Amino acid sequence: MKRTCSLNVHGLRKGEAGQAMLFTVLGLGLFLLGSIAFAIDMSYAWFNRQAAQTAADAACVAGAMDWLKVQTDHITASPYPGHFTPGTNFDCNSTTPNSNSIATTNPSPCVYAALNGFPSTISQGNATSGVLGDNVSVIFNGAAAPGVPTTGTSLMEVDVTQNIPTFFAGLLTGRRTQRMRAIAKCGVQEVASPIPLIVLDPVNYASSGSVRSALNIGGTPLISIYGGPQQSIQVNSVDAAAINGTWGSSLIDLSLGGPNNTGSSLGVTGGPLGPPTLCNPGTKGFCNGTTGSWMSPHSQIPDPFQNLVAPTTAGLLPTYTLTARTGPTGATLADGTNGCSAKGGTCDIYLPGYYASGICLGSSCPGSFQSAAVFGEGLYVLGGNGLTLKSNSCVRMYTAASASPYTSWGGATFFFTGTASSTLNVNANSGNSTSGCGSSTTVGVGGPTGFGVSCDSNSSGHLPGNLTSSTVLTGNVILAPCTGPFGDTYLAAGKTPPSNPGTQRGILFFQDRTLLGVVATGGGGGSYAMAGTFYFHSCSSSTGGAPPCTQPTGSTSTGTYYNDKLTMDGNSGSTSYILGEIIVDNLDMQGTPTIVMDLNPTSANNILKVALYQ
């Protein structure tokens, strides 16, 4: 019998149906699972990378702010602000940075990194070897960020390294940890000073047991600031009452400040946190226009003149001893000639030199000097009682050229030295048109340059918008140099001034920084102009050099550095035009004057500032 064997091929294929689909679904499932695992690991890594960068940035800026204080205050020995030694690298893991309370003595970069979630739980070595945890380390003067100049810049780098666990990627790679690293680079650099009115005292002023705010506004002054940079005023005091005023009756008007005359800002390191009285235009309060603001807290701005070498009496000739009635030259000018304004009388002529007993003008001064005088261009070093302008006095600039080396200075610098009484003392009635100055002048004519308050034809074409060449001045007119070591800061540095606003006047009044407790008074009657910088600061340990400057300790600056005070005063109806900068320890605004400050928007003075580069 023949046997046959047949296969049911159709049935076999039917039993295998769906196997390919199963493998396809399984493959897609594994792919999706891997994608989800990858997304989870990468999202976790991205989140930690962003957090690490935030911590690095915060730590770097915190450390740089403390480093700024070290340089601003010229601190050269421990204890340093921020509890670290500038220039010495350190690892936060060795400083127990988990203790981040207010009373901590840990380095400030470590504290701020810990506050942002990175307490440096492992050493740098363990971080490199892959141990789970985070490390924060600080490096000084390392490689600069791209485009950052190394000259004039102190560099700080904060490195944050974190090893985090992997959840799914480790199944494929075999790695159980993933390293995240964030780097922040910051520093303290020199920049051109943007603030034309700086009140330097880091605490508050105290005299005879009475504590006053660093910027104190008394009486009912109307203070207007015109032009200048976006921030017009900086008050460095950390006190909650760094600025105080009779806000119900005084007006601080910044509505026409700033580069576009649409409003400028006031910054204060301490308080108040906001203006005590809002703007009532033209009447009272704080007016900041449409682009200005009250900024508190705001970081301190250091003295922009801290490296400027002061004048000395060494080799300064001639030396004048004022005993003759007709002043140092023995000559007088008739009213109306070469700048003299004497109400029909005559003016004494003062020339640059050393005046050991100072200069006093006015009917109540000792001796029998004239009440009216003119000052030639050049440097005046004053001892005694400095420059005292009493009632009935009138001072203008001598239009005749001075001899070398002061030829073409175009103005005068008054340097006060000797004792604390050698300073600026201007009576509120000095220059009064009733009993002081006999003739008026205008903003755009006269003076040593022939262009009035301006240095040349170019700068006279860029007067502030609130002044014109025909604006009438009835009181005192004192002008700082345009050239020379204390003239325009661009020219003094060997640079070319900007074409707009052109060459500007330099330092008008310069107080010896070695003196303590100086109380200066600027003001006058009528409409008067003082063009140039007012610089009253007690800081350096030697007349000719840069600080070191010792910061005040405690709540006030009495009996130590930073305790000079300038009072701007005036009577009702007087209008003061201050053209330039005001750099003082403490500033008082008193009386009932109208004080108009036309601020220089193009200062070339360098200050120190914190910057985050990377």
What this model shows, in words?
The protein has two domains: 30-192, no CATH class; 197-612, no CATH class. Helix content is 14%, strand content 29%. Strands 15-13-10-5-36-33-30-25-22-19-16 form an eleven-stranded parallel sheet, with no helix packed on it. Strand 6 (205-207) and strand 7 (210-212) form a beta hairpin. The radius of gyration is 34 Å and the shape is elongated.
| Category from helices, strands and their pairing | alpha/beta
Please state the average pLDDT score: 79
Q: What is the spatial order of strands in the main beta sheet?
A: 15-13-10-5-36-33-30-25-22-19-16
Poorly predicted spans: 542-546
Question: What share of the residues does DSSP label as strand, in percent?
Answer: 25-35%
The backbone outline, from C-alpha atoms, is elongated
Q: How much is the radius of gyration in Å? A: 34 Å
- SS summary, helix count: 7
Sheet with most strands:
11 strands, parallel
Between the first and last Cα atoms, what is the distance in angstroms?
A: 96 Å
Please estimate the helix content.
Answer: 10-25%
Structural domain count: 2
The total strand number stands at 39
Short description:
By secondary structure, this protein is of the alpha/beta class. The protein has 7 helices and 39 strands. The protein folds into 2 domains: 163 residues, no CATH class; 416 residues, no CATH class.
